[in-house]
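ok so heres the complex, two chains, lmk if somethin looks off
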Amino acid sequence: MPETNTIIGETILIRGNLQGDEDLTVRGRVEGTINLKRTLIIEQSGVVKAEVSVNNAVISGVVVGNVTASDSVEITQSGRMVGDIHAPRVIIVEGAKFKGRVDMGELPQSRAVETPAARKVFAPVKSAPQPVRPQAAPTRAAPPPPASKAALKEEDETKIVPARKKIVVKKR
Amino acid sequence: MANVIGSTIIIEGEISGDEDLIIQGTVKGKIALKESLIVERSGVVEADIDTRNVEISGQVTGNIHSSERVEIKSEGRMTGDIKAPRILIADGAKFKGNVDME
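and the predicted structre for the whole thing:
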């Protein structure tokens, strides 16, 4: 018996959890979670508001929710998606609408040197000398010296008087 | 073109709609359709069902409310109450529950 594709028709609404081991075509509406070991196809009329975990996803309809794919996620020209994508291959074609984050996982070694993550390694070296706090920095966290004058005007004097008499005097 | 819930699919929750639905997989929860529900041999339904027609060749546990017809075919097994104007139980079918043809 040939394996049938599961089709969720245009007028069908499913609320809850859906899981399976075959391709699923959504022309209607699914709300909840989808867990598939195969391909999820959301056709133009399809609306999915769900946490989706599949092998492949092809989005021509609307998806609201996060999609995790072990292989690929494709948003076609008519596809619209809001949510995060987590997949090694992500294809977004012209005309597609997408809002969210994309995480393709570990980038290949050859390019890793240029990634922001690699730059971060050097960043602390450049700015290594941490600004040493002025001596009179007791447990009470005082505002940094350059900003203190401006801050003083707005702050309640009584609070500051005991800690920074000097500045208070200047102000008057 | 029919709606088919394939044999490896498991749905926990509610299904509603106004077209025919063929179930080869598993559905737990609630099914409300304006048309026919067909539970095929491999289908397992643990749900309250509210449709126009129901045709059972698989296994159904739950109550059925049908506005037209419920048919339990010879391979069908059903546990639960049926409320429908026309009810057919074929030779070989297994059924346990109340029938209300009102």
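quick notes: Residues 34 and 52 of chain A are 5 Å apart (CA to CA). thats all i got rn
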